[in-house]
What we know:
By secondary structure, the chain is of the alpha+beta class. 54% of the residues lie in helices and 16% in strands. Residues 361-385 are annotated as: Disordered.
Amino acid sequence: MSPAQWIAIGVAVAISMTLVFVFQWLLNHKLGKVWPMARYVVSRSAVTAYTAAAVVGANLALPSRGDVPWSTFQTIDHAMTILMIGTLTALILSLAYAATDMVLERLSVRNGDADRRARRLQTQVRLLRRVITSVVVVLAIAAILFTFEGVRALGAGLLASAGVIGIVAGVAAQSTLSNLFAGLQLAFSDALRIGDVVVVEGEWGRVEELSLVNVTIKIWDERRLVVPVANFTTTSFENWTKSGTNITAKVQLPLDWEVPVGELREEAGKLITASKFWDGRSWSCQVVDVTESGEVVVRVVASASDTGNQWNIACEIREHLVTWLVENYPQSLPRKRTEFVGGTEEESSYAEQFPTSAFRRATAASGAVHDSSNGTAQSGNAEEV
């Protein structure tokens, strides 16, 4: 091409990019005050708009077919067609992302786990955006490929056997398609949302991302658990925020039979009702079980507004009651009882001064030993229980 033709292309590119600059300036300083989407459009299309403008300007200023050799014209025309498809596709996707960015910001979670509707819509918008992006990109790639004569001829042959190709493609992409439909099912059945607190494969975490292939769960210790989307439709999982954020904290304490349950319940009540993590709904303190090792199990439960408060109040109850029992009722702490039967007064006095296990080893051959934890009596050289 001649220098004049190159200058013409440069001028056309400069003019088109100047128009984009003016348009973005108007969006930022004028239209942005009356059109909320303006700043999202400018932010998302900062690169793609200029690139598309440059390609369109260059395409408009290209020399005609008679100004350059035919082979050169074909090469330039083919390259510009590919660039047009690619840059315009990128621009369209950036504008689509700008529109969804505005929607997602309006749906941003301002009330934490309680805003379930916003989190559900966020999940659906994000997933649909990924689906549409994938479809548009595939169509753009197909359009680029069909600009080649060889691929176009091959495409005509493939269309003739579309049924066979469809079956083969369906079998080959079975896993991908199952994940795609599983993701759509999760998003639109409201079974899983971004921000949900879940327990998957024994790990507690929060759903951070829901894509067409995987669900990314941010575990409490900052690790990420990546699970295939299809797993959530074929296996069970715990969703702690499915219907609401209210949850109950549970603390179980294995204690001795001498624990003063009334005083313990009163102390637990004082602590829970004064705690900033309690939501004021309910609490209780009950003996719920007796273990085989001879301990009573006291369970303290308290309601909380969300999982964060549930964890904090459970730790608060556990720490406070353990300290209170140690300071006021140390005999309530878990212990093993061993009773000596038939020993002399000297042995009994000695047993009160030393640990039971040591005394049993020292006096195993001198008399009968009775273990009150299981009610059995042993004599002579009985081993320690």
